Structure prediction request, 402 residues.
Amino acid sequence: MRHKAVILGCNYYIGLSVIRCLGMRGIHTVAVDYAEQGAYGALSKYTSERLIAPHYKEEKEAFIAFLKDYGSKQEAPPVLFPCHDSYVEAIDEHLTELRELYLIPQTKQGLYTEVMNKDSLHLLAREYGVAVPETLRPGDEDFLNRVERELGYPCIVKPTDSPAFVAVFRRKLFLARDRVELLEAMEQAANAGLDVIVQRIIPGFDDHMYTYDAYLNQESKVTHQVTCQKYRQFPINFGASVYTGQLCVPELMDIGGPFLERIGWKGFAEIEFKKDAETGVFYLIEVNVRTTNLNELLRKVGINFPYVAYMELAGSPVEPCTVTRNTNRVFWYAYEDMLAVRDYWREGQLSAGEVLRSLLKPKAYAIWSWRDPKPALAFASILAGKLRGKARRRAYAASGQE
Prediction:
């Protein structure tokens, strides 16, 4: 095929899944990262070309210049696949100039950022009648008293800019169990120069989290869609999917599809919902605008989203598809799921029997593939190195105390 696929970010399994989804269909894949070390996704046998680029944040202008230079040298515009939120932010900032050299589904500059930003996303959701958790902002009148009256404790302190927050704190949010913890969380965010919002926690265990994954064509119409139910997350209760199953939930399609169409969305999006355990209402939590953690699961249950995007942008759209059957297949990120299980046990939220029964389901692995084992072996080596380093630090600390 004439158009190459440029995959941004290969040091995590999302980039690896995109490389596999496209490479196994015979598409020329270009794995791009800012360093060779740790970019295990680029070691896939489906990688056609590997490039090292300037850092997308530390050298943003050089990174954009790198992309423009590469795109200008191709005989046909490559299709661009950002696999991390920070790559999306950089692309959105330079969308107009990059669209002259690359095929990118989104045409409206700023929409990526508007939907990624928790504050503006919630305003959009309310405008179009989609339920969101009750939210207050630090500048609201009588803020602290209203938190106690309207949200209650515990509540969560969330960033409006998730990538920046995660880069600083290595977590998605703060949990505030009382006013003291709320003020401490707000002070930490303020010291880091980050804006936050405060939300009510929707009641329900982690299995009340759901996803709606969809692709919208250049007319902003849903052509492909599938829904899933989370079972376990890491960090537990407020983390990313580590054990999630495909489950058809028509109500999510009725909510998510029209919302994305009304805001003029184009390309892939994943809406995360939480079902209120007391009322049954689905609340929109966030929208992932880049390829999802669940990408390999979605491919196995019937929709290869990177291929769908590639073919539409290349001018040969594939047939629409809605997954309505239940396959019982689950996504499994074994490493972080083991950490999650440990914490669920410690908190008394899951029993050993519940965990063991869940593991009997057919799986879509985050990293492992019999047909393409090298990335998993490289990841294992990276992980072993980290564990050895941690053990050495502990031993050094212990020896210093003696």
